[in-house]
Design brief:
Elements (H helix, E strand, L loop, with lengths): L8 H14 L12 H8 L3 H13 L3 E4 L3 E4 L3 H27 L4 H15 L12
Antiparallel strand pairs: 1-2
Helix pairs in contact: 1-3, 2-3
């Protein structure tokens, strides 16, 4: 994982965990990597991963089963999606809209590029686990 300088590392790790939940790699009620395992995988201090996990626990995205580890909450997908959507609308969308306005990108062109991006980067999402998109 390559970290950006403009955002706290623990938030970037929380976003990584959230991405895995949203992509269906870590479904509801699945155990997630331990603090130590994720720290080794991402080559960061375990305290940083712990802070990320505490952040996600406070949002009730993940929870601790005493003696077993951390798990994705039953409604973790929905909570991550709601949080990320609100954050995107508030912080990223104004910049995005400003750029497409300044660059005179029309909705049809934008839709074409979006579909190409999805095809190049992601497998189709399964509707089995997440009917309410």
């Amino acid at each position: 994982m390559e970290f950006r300088d403009n955002e706290a590392i623990y938030l970037q790790i929380a976003a990584f965990v959230s991405d895995n939940i949203l992509l269906g790699k870590w479904p509801a009620e699945q155990k997630i990597p331990s603090v130590r395992d994720l720290a080794v995988e991402l080559e960061v201090n375990p305290n940083t991963v712990m802070r990320s996990y505490e952040f996600l626990q406070n949002q009730e995205v993940i929870y601790n089963k005493r003696g077993l580890g951390l798990f994705v909450a039953a409604d973790g997908y929905e909570k991550v999606k709601a949080y990320r959507k609100a954050r995107f609308i508030e912080h990223d969308m104004p910049v995005f809209f400003r750029n497409i306005y300044l660059l005179d990108i029309n909705p049809e062109e934008l839709a074409k590029w979006y579909e190409r991006f999805k095809a190049d980067n992601y497998e189709p999402k399964s509707d089995e686990n997440h009917e309410n998109k």
